[in-house]
User: What shape does this take?
Amino acid sequence: MPIFMDRHELTGTSAADVAEAHRRDLEVQDEYGVKFLTYWFDQRRGTAFCLVDAPDAETAQCVHREAHGFVAGEIVEVSLSAVEAFLGRIFDPLPVQSQTNCDMDAGHRTILFTDIVGSTDMTSRVGDRMAAELVRAHDGIVRRSLDHFIGREVKHTGDGIMATFESSRSAVDCAVAIQQEFAHFRCTAAEPIHVRVGLDCGEPIEDSNDLFGSTVQLAARLCAAAAADQILVSGNVFREYDDPDRFSHAKRRRLKGFSKPILAFSLNG
Assistant: This one.
């Protein structure tokens, strides 16, 4: 059966209320041939997301309707691999009754992209074998930083890495550490590596029919727009990090795929 993720607007609802609604879904699901896999709840934003294995979207909604009446405002088909890559889990991490407001995962994620500057020219200059070694050096530096700041690699892009974080602060601090590590690498390397980094944050369903659509796109576009050794972050990341002194050079940029100029902030090292 296909896998769906839905979104509920539940402003004013407590974590205990959502946990109880999920419990009721589990009680009713067998009558409809549906399996609710897990859920996320962000009390601050008043949003909840359910991951459900169902014959179709309407059947999943029927379970919500009968169990508690909290029908989703949006539901899209997703792949389990994509959900697990971005959110890190596809099943309940704890029994529902033991979950508290403190350990509830909000489903909000920060996306980070790295990109090796001038990778094509680098390959032409040093040859395929040396270029491959430099990409491996890049990967090692980035992955060590991801491990330290509890980031999760989503995919390798050929000349960069895409990663996801539960915390914007961790993502920003990781980006700084990555650039610091590359600066240290360039002090002794025969062939320097320069990278650019872009970050944005958002919730699982950003665009209709696309999991993490605009968040991923904006992080990638900010990375592409950054200069060598620069980190560009979105206004969302700037606000969530909540330390204006870490950023400078706010500028509206025209980015491919976005109809309006996007306000981007450069991160100080």
